[in-house]
Each structure stands twice: as C-alpha cells, then as structure tokens.
Amidohydrolase family protein (Erythrobacter fulvus), 574 residues
Amino acid sequence: MGAEYDWVIRGGKIADGTGGDLIEGDVAIRDGRIAAIGEVNGSGTDEIDAKGKIVTPGFIDVHTHYDGQCIWAEELSPSSSHGVTTAVMGNCGVGFAPCRKADHDMLINVMEGVEDIPGVVMTEGLPWDWETFPEYLDTVAAGKRDIDVAAYLPHSPLRVYAMGERGAAREVATEDDLALMRRMTEEAMRAGAIGFATSRLSIHKTADGEAIPTFDTDIAELEAITRGMADAGAGTFQVVLDAFVGWDREYQVIERVIAASGRPATFTLASGNDAPPRWRRVLEMLERTNAQGGIANAQVMPRPIGLIAGLELTVHPFVLCPSWQKIAHLPIPEQVAAMRNPALRAALISEDFTPGHPFNELARNWRWLFPLDDPPDYAPPAHTSMAGQAAARGCTPQEVAYDRLLETEGRGLFLAALGNYENATLDSAHEMLRHPHCVPGLGDGGAHYGAICDASYSTYLLTQFVKGDGPLKLDLAEAVHMLGWKAAGAVGLHDRGTLRVGGRADLNVIDLDRLTLHLPQVVRDLPAGGRRLHQRATGYEATFVAGEAIRRFDESTGARPGQLIRGPGYRAAA
C-alpha cells in the first residue's frame, strides 16, 4: 500500500500561530494542504523526525520591496532564508507600475534613491513589458519563485501615470486627477492588489536628492485614492508617516483615510533612541482608532532600525569626506593600503562630510554607531559605540572607526542605529511588539541592497526574545503568533499564518536550540553584477510553501511553488 500523505513531520513541538498552547505531535501534508495534526498513523512519501524541534506556520513578511527581485530572481532571499513563506511588496508607495515607457527613468530614479537599488540593476533586470498595474501583476504571476508574494498599488507611479510631469513635480492634484486615480485604484484592487501604499517621509529622496512625488501630499488626495479601495470593497492602506514633523499632525492621515474609505490602515512605528517616548502616545491613538470601529495597526522592527556601513557598502564613516574621493574608485585592498598613509589618515579623520543623501549622515552619528561582528549583536552595550570607545581611549570617534577599518583590512562592518534603541535597550521594541495593534515588520527585503539587511528579523525575534532570558523574553507561542497569523491579518491575508487541518501547508521545522543568525555578507548576484547584502541563518531544518519543501537544512531545494497572491477584491477575467 502506498503512502497516505506527501509528507509527515513527526514528534515536533507545534506552535500553530494562534497564540494558543503548544502541543507535541505530528503534522501531515497532502496536496498542498495540512491533512492532519496530532497523532498521524499513516505514512508519508517523505518524513521528517522533528523531535526536539519546533513546527510553526510560515512567517508573513508584511513590509518588503521585492517588486523587482520577484521578476529577475527565483529566490526571494533573504526573506525565504528566515522562515518567510509570504512577502508583501509595494510598500512605501514605490514600485514599477503603472508606468508609461517615457517614465521608466523617473521611477528608477525614485527607487534608486528611496530603496538603494542601483539603476543599472533595474534597467537590465526588468523587462518593462507592462504599462498598467494589472499588467504588472500578470507579469509577476507568470514568474517562478520560492515563496508567495502579494502587492500594494504604489502611490508614486500611480501619481506620475495620472498626472505626468505635474505629478513628479508634486503639484496639487485636480478633481480630474483624483477621479482618475480613484478609478485606477479600484481597477488595481479588482486585479488583485492587496491595497494602496504611500510615503510621506521627508528623508525618502530620489537618487538626485529631490523629494519623491508623494512627499507631503494633501490628505484629500489620499482620501480620494483610498475611496477606490472602498469602491472595490477591498484593500489595506499602508503608509510611512513623517514622524519628524510630529505624530499629532501625521496621525490625522490614518484617521481621515479610515473615515473616508472604511478600509484598514497600517503604518511604520519606531521609538527614538534618546528622544521622549512619543511612541506611547501613538499607541494611545491606535487604541482610540480601533475602539471607535476603525482598523489600524503599526509595524514595528524587533531590533534597532538603521543601516549597515562598510567600505564595500553604500555608506561608511568617511564616504563623503572630500579626501575619500581620491581613493573611492580603488578596490578595497588598495583603499586600505592608501589609508595607512599618515597624511591621508590625518585628512580623513579631520574632514567633515560634504552634502549628500540623508542616510549618509547616519554613519557619522558616533553615539549610535557600533561594530557589527560575527555573530552580530543588534543590542550592543552603549559603551561599545564609536563615541563610547573614543571616550575610553581618549581619542576621537573618527579615529576609532578608522582603526577598525584598518584592523579588519577594510572588511569591518558597523551598525548605525537610527531608532528603536531607546536608551540603548530593546525595551521599547519589546513593549510595542506585545501591543495588540502592533505587528513585526520593516524587513525591507529586496531593497537597500547596500545598506540594510533586516529581512532576518524573524530569526532575530526568535533568537533574541524567545531563546533569551530576562524581562524581555517572549513565549514561543506568542512570538510565532506575531510572525504568523497576527501579521497576516494586519494586511488582510486571512488564509495563512496558522496551522490547521485543511489550511495551507506553509510551515517551518526549526531547530530552536541551533538557531543562529550570521553576519551579513556581500554577494554579487543581482542583474549587471550588482551587489547586495545577504544574511544566513542556521537552524531551519525545513520550510514548506503549498506543501513543497523549498528549503532543507538551511539550503534551497530548487522548488518553486511560490505564486502571486491576489487580494480579496480580485475578479477573474470572464
């Protein structure tokens, strides 16, 4: 008699994603669905001995930018390397559709500036065989990949498509413009978009240093566009608010959009490192919105928000010093040799930055610039910062950073903590994560290729908060709930994030005792030989998507079951 199931995972500790009690038992998979949970007597064509391991739903990464990578690559790493089985892209209102041929360069300029994706990568890696957003979704749907993706309609390309140069120049939309964007939004929801996304963040700039098309857009425009979601009866509103101008002003966007459209909203939330804890006021606003019948949630990074800096990356502590330009074109070994020259050392240590992209300044915020080694410490003690070490040594932070680069032959990395590290602890991140209206996110996979590698946050949450001890420890069931069902529900994906009989067979088998996060590495696998940061983990024994094992023992199996997930407003063509 043949096997009754495709796979049986035996004897694991099952965290089903609901936040309920763990159970020890088996999970059987058949035809892409979970066929049984508990004691499974039948055999599987393949079986996994999960004794001593945990079994979880596949994780939902609600904030990514795989809009390009999902077309030019089949593996959506780093996310798929860290237990993620569904990635939501199109966040922050940037993307590649709708787009007329004449506007390709403009969208590339926006994506290069906001998301640090080299222009040549997008030029060579994308076929640009679409114009409308539904056509873009069809291109995504036709591709092969390891995990599922869902997509927001992004505001910047929508605005430029509807308004032309006036949209790029941030002119006020006319009534006709608003009516067109509303119709196009309804069309996108009917084609399967899961919502509409925008950014109001002042430090989001184009590659030319200009404000992006959506910066400081009139709220009336957002109200009009999101009414297109109401027309379709589907969609979530995603926004990056400009906390720099104050939450009392910016949170009005959430309130007014929900009032106008009746649709759920999700936005980015972080704590400052040493500012007053304004995030608690935001949590109060969230509670008020939800108590009054609206639906809103905040996306919170489980570790410091910031950048990775290094000579091989987009930013480093000397990248905008005038003397650096003399050696910027050299290979790293030759840069290091030149840096050993006392005259160049004296110049670089004494020079200030010339003007540049705001992100570059983070690599000079000495109090919050830390060494990043293997294994990476994302919660480093305050005294290990460049400023802390300088105070102990009686020198300048510039000298500490310079010496680190020389001692590591130019390969040393730095963690520039922009936020979410209040008073050099993770207390604020922990408190926000546990709030009923917050979910983990902001991994930014598929973007910031030379500066950010936060798509590993799921692994970090498990290693830092579940495996760790002390007051910040999280229960395993609670952490898996955050990464699964809670995250999925926040963006309207209610068919995933849990383990239940009859449900999707998206799941992980994890050796929690061995689970380890490794130092980010530079790989050169982008179109045109572009480089990106990648981060590996050890301890993922298996990851399944739709019943197929896409990864075993921390390596890809080559399986490509991933699909485009069309949102609840989707209407298939007759």
Notes: The chain has two domains: 59-303+422-490+502-529, 308-419. Residues 308-419 form one domain. Residues 550 and 559 are 5 Å apart (CA to CA).
